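Holo prediction — fe (ii) ion.
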Amino acid sequence: MNRSEINAHIRDAISLFSRLSFHLPPFAFWTPEYWRTAGPEVNEIRDNFLGWDVTDYGLGRFAETGLLLFTIRNGNFTRKDTYPKGYAEKIMVVRENQITPWHYHWNKREDIINRGGGELVLELFLADDKNGFSDKTFSVSVDGVQRRMKPGASVILRPGESICLEPYVYHTFYGRAGGAPVMVGEVSDVNDDANDNCFLDKLGRFPDIIEDEPPLHLLCTEYPRPE
Ligand SMILES: [Fe+2]
């Protein structure tokens, strides 16, 4: 992705969150210059990949397959002594027909929440033991109400609604056609992008970036460390 494109998506997200009265923490607005002077006191942000995350999954077609996320809080599986937190929270922007590709998690249980804007469509399967789609029916909890699902069935979340995605439930999601961008929340177990995402197709989790202008805000994978 071009850095100019990433900057524009971050600007758009800040303006959508503001319109929908969702307030980001201060580190969302730190500049690259500020990061160069930040010391070990901000290691929780560095070590747990908090902050901006804009990805096209390495495909170069962000509008069709992409996601903008801001990780507000997270723990750390490999450094539990330092970071014992057992939960994570994210806020995301999902646009009309913008797909987050099929994946599931071995460990993470995640609630996906429509926090405002348009409608969010999720399609679901149970994973089989070869990382494919199972033909079994299964149940999901939609705001505390059990719903029986056929393989590949959809759930549509309107603002305020949420679904609990258990481990091994394959999911893909996108904003409903003809609708506004969706502000999507996630409340989950600890998020471990390195070890707990099973994508149906081989995909990159983070984009390759072409530096065509300076970054507005650093992505969560880009924070410098003190010397
Ligand atoms: Fe997921």
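READOUT: The two ends are 29 Å apart (CA to CA).
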